[in-house]
Every structure is written in structure tokens, then in C-alpha cells.
From TrEMBL:
<protein>
    <submittedName>
        <fullName>DUF4177 domain-containing protein</fullName>
    </submittedName>
</protein>
Length: 53
């Protein structure tokens, strides 16, 4: 059985455009893992299997 290898991205979120930002990343094959509050605002953590898109 093959093990999935992941790549990760962190994306700053603009509150009034959160859905549009996440939809765009989702269309590129990224899955939202978590959203956290940072010192500068919201940050989305995403992952997708290596080799997709």
C-alpha cells in the first residue's frame, strides 16, 4: 500500500473575501486543514497530495 505524501500551504485570509480565497485554493486541489488567528489576522493551513495539479 502506497503512502500519501502531502504538500502544505499557509494562506493569509482577508475577512471580507474568505470564501472566495478558499474556493480558489479548493479548485486547485487544496484541502483546508485549519484556520488560526495570528498576530496579523487569520491564516488558513491547507494540504494536498504531492503531484496534484
Amino acid at each position: 500500500m502506497a503512502t500519501t505524501t502531502w504538500e502544505y500551504a499557509t494562506v493569509p485570509l482577508i475577512v471580507h473575501a474568505t470564501k472566495a480565497i478558499l474556493d480558489q485554493w479548493g479548485q486547485d486541489g487544496w484541502e483546508l486543514v485549519q484556520v488560526l488567528q495570528s498576530e496579523t489576522g487569520l491564516v488558513a493551513y491547507l494540504k494536498r497530495p504531492v503531484g496534484e495539479k
